[in-house]
Amino acid sequence: MASSTIFFFSFYLSLSLHVSADNSNDICPATSCQHGGPEIRFPFRLRDVQPDRCGYPGFDLSCNNRSQAILQLPNLQDFVVSLINYDQQYIVLKYPSNCLAKRLQNQTFSSSLFVAQEYGSFTFTDCPDKFLPNFGMSPVDCLSDEHHKVLLCDANDPGALYLPILGCRTWNVSVPVSRQLLMDITERVSLKWDRPDCRSCEKRGGWCGLSGSTGSQVGCFSKHGLSKSEAKYTILRAVLAPLLLCMFGITCYLSSHARLSGHPDRPRQPPNGNDGENNVADILSPSSPVTRTRRTSNGAVGLDSLAIESYPKVQVGDDGRVPRPNDNICAICLSEYQPKEMLRTIPKCGHYFHAQCIDQWLGRNASCPMCRNKKGNV
């Protein structure tokens, strides 16, 4: 039974450790560079603040000295992160000097991770300051000065056709745009990412995160740390564990009861004492025998009085000498034999006891108290 208990709890402990190991990469808490700034969480991570496993490769952000979240795109300067939309997976960027138009003139914003939702074609024009009319075009103040005025319009705007005639220098650029998020492209642009794809997880109210201690496999987690599948498994464990423990206890009880039932003649051990007659009287109650063997109220099989009286008796001598000099204590009442006391012997094994002790014993148990498991019944 002890070995079964050890095995059961070892198995349950190993199962618990296995589940705990699966949960070792719970979602990292969200953070930000400043209060009210964009929330930074997977696939983004704050470099030097959050562990590498908190973000997806290539999505590292940092905080500048103005507590702004900064993203560095390949082959481009740093950009300030104005907004991160995790549901639709797009990010809004602006230039630290608030002159994004300066970066737009020769950049396409293409990278391996962030791409434009779509591109729009725009025309920049640089005209002498004497041409004050802007033909409905938008002035770009951060690129203009007292000698030049820089304007911006859609490349298909008819007014752009007359600008070269007026001595203006023009050039076209391709700029990331988003029809769902209209904005001034001289201030902000929007880029999206497709991998890792966490949109379905976000719609279910979860957060994405890396699964396991290595690799780049992405899983969906509940906001308090466990993935949906792991949360279900944890609940299932919480229900099954008490049930298994209960079943295990019932099995142990039934097994123990069956073993006890298989030995109906197991004797009760008498309590220690010096008065053998009183000790036996406390344990055994007399009953009237009917046949050679009889079944007592507790189910044990005993001998009737005629069978008991057929066993030989011997009296202890005046000097206290007993049949076996080294055997001078009754195994039933644990008292030493005294002169003139009457002993009774069990013929089959030769063991002897106080007559009154063994008589009451055999009335309840048809076996020798000392060797019942060695030589069988009397």
Radius of gyration: 48 Å
Q: Widest sheet: strand order?
A: 1-2-3-4-5-11-6
The ordered string of helix (H) and strand (E) elements is HEEEEEHEEEEEEHEEHHEEHEEEH
Estimated share of beta-strand residues: 15-25%
Structural class: alpha+beta
Mean pLDDT: 75
Number of helices: 7
User: What is the chains' assembly state?
Assistant: single chain
Taking the alpha carbons of the first and last residues, their distance comes to 32 Å
What is the count of distinct domains?
Answer: 2
Low-confidence stretches: 5-25, 263-291
Give the helix level as a range of percent.
10-25%
User: How many β-strands, per DSSP?
Assistant: 18
Specify the overall morphology: rod-shaped
Biggest pleated sheet: 7 strands, mixed
Produce a short descriptive summary.
With 378 residues, the chain is of the alpha+beta class.
Blueprint of the fold:
Layout: H1 2-22, E1 45-46, E2 60-63, E3 69-72, E4 78-85, E5 90-94, H2 100-104, E6 115-116, E7 118-128, E8 138-139, E9 148-154, E10 169-177, E11 189-192, H3 199-203, E12 207-210, E13 218-221, H4 228-261, H5 276-283, E14 293-295, E15 301-303, H6 305-309, E16 313-315, E17 342-345, E18 352-354, H7 355-364
Parallel strand pairs: 1-2
Antiparallel strand pairs: 2-3, 3-4, 4-5, 5-11, 6-11, 7-9, 7-10, 8-9, 12-13, 14-15, 16-17, 17-18
Q: Could you characterize what this model shows?
A:
It is a single chain. The protein is of the alpha+beta class. The chain folds into two domains: 2-230, no CATH class; 276-364, Zinc/RING finger domain, C3HC4 (zinc finger) (Herpes Virus-1, 2-Layer Sandwich). The protein has seven helices and 18 strands. The strands form five sheets. The chain has a seven-stranded mixed sheet, with no helix packed on it. Strands 8-9-7-10 form a four-stranded antiparallel sheet, with no helix packed on it. A three-stranded antiparallel sheet has the order 16-17-18, covered by helices on one side. A hairpin with a 7-residue loop joins strand 12 (207-210) and strand 13 (218-221). Helix 5 runs parallel beside helix 7 (355-364). The longest helix has 34 residues, at 228-261. The two termini are 32 Å apart.
